[in-house]
Amino acid sequence: MEPWNNAEPPSVEITFGTCDDITTRPADTTDTVSSGPADQDWVEPDLAVAALIRGVAGPPEQTDADVNRMFTRAMAWQECPISRYRIIEINQLALSYFQDHFPSSWGQAYLADRFGQDLTDDLRFRPGQAPAGWIGLVSHLRSRGISGEEMTAAGVATVASTGRLIDRFRDRVVFPIIHNGEILAFVGRRHPDLGDTGRGGSKYLNTADTPLFNKGAQLFGADDVDVAAGGVPVIVEGPMDAIAITLASSGRYIGVAPLGTSLTDEQAHQLAAIGKNPIVATDADTAGRVAAERDFWILTPYRLDPRYARLPDGNDPADLLALNGPDALTTVLDQARPLGERLAEERLASLPPAQARLEAARIVAARPPACWDQGSNTISSRLNLPLPAVRQTLLAHVKEWNLDPRRAAANSLQRVNDVKRRLTEAAAIGPEQRWAALASQLDQRLPQQGDWPALAQLLQRVDDQGHDVAAITRAVTRTALNDLPAQDLRYRLAAYLDVGDDQQRPPVHTSANTTTRPRPHREAAASFVARPRTPPR
Description:
DNA primase DNAg catalytic core, N-terminal domain, four-stranded antiparallel β-sheet, 4 domains, Dna Topoisomerase Vi A Subunit, Chain: A, domain 2, alpha/beta, globular, six-stranded mixed β-sheet
């Protein structure tokens, strides 16, 4: 199977028995944990059967919306004045034009500065430069026999308010969007000195939708060679971040980015065809964490169990590569842990116990059966609930997921705004309050200590650097803390992360004049990535 083929992979037909084999009471009902011992005797056998069903399930069934979308696109070809082959030919001519203008352009210098290498001859990205004029490409294509109608149909030109035909891409560094070796469209990055309020337009600009290209149906950045070599896809927020991921890891990780949209079902299907669980590496701010939450519920119906790479605060992947080099970025990716664990941790830390049980079990149910035991045990121990009660709640969610994963995921997507609200509120509170609940779970004495403020500040620093505070603190407190618990935990964290617990920080590898602007074209906060001696289990 070609990894980026939009065709549905062959599904496995599953024959269910009676309706009772798959239906259950709604997972949100509170009495799922109050049944008697006789009911609980069936929980483990039912979970075992549900695991077998999950193991042979194919991709989710197409919805009416999927069918309507396919019909609409088929009709678009009927109305298009030119053929598919002609659009690809025009795109190839446009790419040659952009590439001819790339040497000695600001785009070439910008990319070389941003990534630390010249991308001129990199066949994975094939960068080009759209000149600043209004009709450079239009004039070039006309000289090659391309009509104005063909240019607008291919999306490389547009009609101005004056009625004049002009270039769609002007004064931008341009990358082709390639699928199966064919150039479908382009994405252009504006000049870095132009802000959102100027006349430079949006930061990224795509080819307008055509019968050949729809921004919700394609991902930027996946190179066929790297995919075939077994590279792990990493979902980021923009094309520059995608390029940074691929360059930093020499193709071991493959940066992929949606094109101006949130991750879509079509893009998730493409990722599933690669056959490797992706990593989500969105920004560490609230918007990035909400995007990661949404990605989880888009990916899991396709039997994917994404991991999450926690970036240092204020840094996206391109920033981290520019500031600290490829090793820092690949270390963050190497330390990625299951995204589902992070989402469950957020529920367990911020919701009332009854709600936390339901929501955390919902997340565990969306993950592969191999994760169900550990997830159940975590919920049971964190909420001090009997394990059989947790398993019964999990079973209800698992059956709901097996019956219709996209519908189950859609229910959780409707709650994303609730997650956003909680994350926004958590970001507004100080470290002492933010980490008090976790500290009490580790050792009830911690928030009462005189040096608790110093420990809370250290926990915040560890979080800002992109580490999973909950996982690391639990890893270092497997043995009891001593009579000075806050001080003892600070020392353990310092030893585990190989950094001091004061305000000293290792030097950051940046250019000479980077006090407030580490790179001339982009503001980024200088930070370091402390490397744990051993990753938490």
